[in-house]
Design brief:
It contains 11 helices and 8 strands. With about 325 residues, the protein is an alpha/beta fold.
C-alpha cells in the first residue's frame, strides 16, 4: 500500500462538557456501523491534524476524532487549569459513554500513544486494540531524550538546541529547561512570551522529520499562532509535571493489557521519542507487533510512516472482524 485513504467529511460534530469549565470538540466520520476507532492526537496541544481520517478505510471504520483539553477547537484554548493526564483519561471515557460505544480501537501517536496506553490500562474492557506511532512512555529518560543537553536530540542538532535553550540558567538540564519555559510562557511581557512559544515550537518542529521544507527550522510564519501557543504551553505544562505519572508507570502496569492486540510503528530516526521505548514496550506486551520504519523520523507526514499506519489499520480491521465472526 503506497497511498493514504481518501479523506472524508465528518457527518456529525459537536462539543461535550467534561467539567471544570472545559468543553471538548469532537467529530464522527466514516461508517457509523463500522469498527469504532478513536484518533488521539499528540502534543499535548497539537489538536486534530487536517488529514487524520486518511489513515482509515471509511467503509470499514467509524472514525472518531476529538481535541483534548485546551487544544484546537476545545474550550478554553491552551488552558492548563484542571488539565492533567488523568482528567484527559476520564474525558475519553466520558466521550465513549456519550457516543454509546462499547469498545473502540485506540489510534494514538507520540503523546497520543501515552494517553492511549494509560486509558487502556485504566479501562481494558473498553479497548478492542491499539495502533501506536512514535511511542512516548513519559519516563525521565524519555524527557531527557527530548530536552536534556545530553539527550540524542541535542547531540544531533546542537545548533538548534542552542537557540532553544538560550536564556536558560546554567546548569542546563531537562528540568531547568521546563522551569524556564514555564516562566516564559506565563510572562506578562508579550514579546518575551511569544518568543519563548516560538522557540519551543521550532525545536519540536525541527526534530519531527528527517527533512524539513526550507526555512521551517528557523521560523514559525507558516503556522497559526494559536497552534504554536497551544502546543508549547501544554507540552511545557505536562513535561514540567512529569506527565502526571509515576516513573515507569506504563511498563510496570503493562500486564493489564497483555491480552489486547496492538501494533507499534516507530521511525528509526525519531528524535522526539526514543526507538528504545517502542522496543521496551513490545518486549513486555505479548500481543503487540513492532514495525521500525527504516527511513523515517517522528512525523506522520513522512510517507513511510503514513503508509505503515494505513497498513496497520487495514490489518487490524481484518483481525477484529475475524474475531467477531
Amino acid at each position: 500500500m503506497k497511498r493514504l485513504y481518501p479523506d472524508v467529511t465528518c457527518y456529525r460534530n459537536g462539543f461535550i462538557e467534561v467539567g471544570n469549565g472545559h468543553a471538548l470538540y469532537y467529530e464522527q466520520s466514516g461508517n457509523p456501523d463500522g469498527i469504532p476507532v478513536l484518533f488521539i492526537h499528540g502534543g499535548p496541544g497539537a489538536g486534530l491534524p487536517s488529514n487524520y481520517k486518511c489513515f482509515f478505510d471509511s467503509n470499514k471504520y467509524h472514525i472518531i476524532g476529538y481535541e483534548q483539553r485546551g487544544c484546537g477547537r476545545s474550550k478554553p484554548l491552551a488552558d492548563i487549569a484542571n488539565n492533567d493526564t488523568w482528567l484527559n483519561v476520564d474525558d475519553i471515557e466520558t466521550l465513549r459513554e456519550h457516543l454509546g460505544i462499547n469498545k473502540f480501537l485506540l489510534f494514538g501517536g507520540s503523546w497520543g500513544s501515552t494517553l492511549a496506553l494509560v486509558y487502556a490500562l485504566q479501562h481494558p474492557s473498553r479497548v478492542s486494540g491499539l495502533i501506536l506511532r512514535g511511542v512516548f512512555l513519559a519516563r525521565q529518560e524519555d524527557r531527557e531524550w527530548f530536552l536534556s543537553p545530553h539527550g540524542c536530540a541535542a547531540q544531533l542538532f546542537p545548533e538548534y538546541y542552542q537557540k532553544f535553550v538560550k536564556g536558560v540558567p546554567s546548569p542546563v538540564t531537562a528540568n531547568s529547561v521546563c522551569d524556564y519555559y514555564t516562566k516564559m510562557v506565563r510572562s506578562t511581557n508579550e514579546l518575551q512570551r511569544h518568543g519563548a512559544l516560538k522557540r519551543w515550537y521550532q525545536w519540536e518542529e525541527r526534530l519531527s522529520r528527517l527533512t524539513l521544507p526550507p526555512g521551517i527550522g528557523d521560523c514559525t510564519t507558516n503556522y497559526p499562532m494559536h497552534l504554536v501557543t497551544c502546543l508549547a504551553t501544554l507540552e511545557c505544562h505536562f513535561l514540567s509535571n512529569k506527565c502526571f505519572l509515576e516513573e515507569n508507570y506504563i511498563l510496570e502496569n503493562i500486564q493489564k493489557i497483555s491480552h489486547i492486540p496492538g501494533t507499534i510503528i516507530h521511525g528509526r530516526y525519531d528524535m522526539i521519542c526514543k526507538t528504545e521505548a517502542a522496543e521496551a514496550l513490545h518486549k513486555q506486551w505479548p500481543q503487540s507487533q513492532l514495525q521500525i520504519i527504516p527511513d523515517a523520523g517522528h512525523s506522520t507526514s513522512e510517507p513511510s510512516i503514513g503508509y505503515a499506519l494505513c497498513r496497520a489499520t487495514r490489518d487490524m480491521s481484518r483481525f477484529l472482524q475475524e474475531c467477531s465472526s
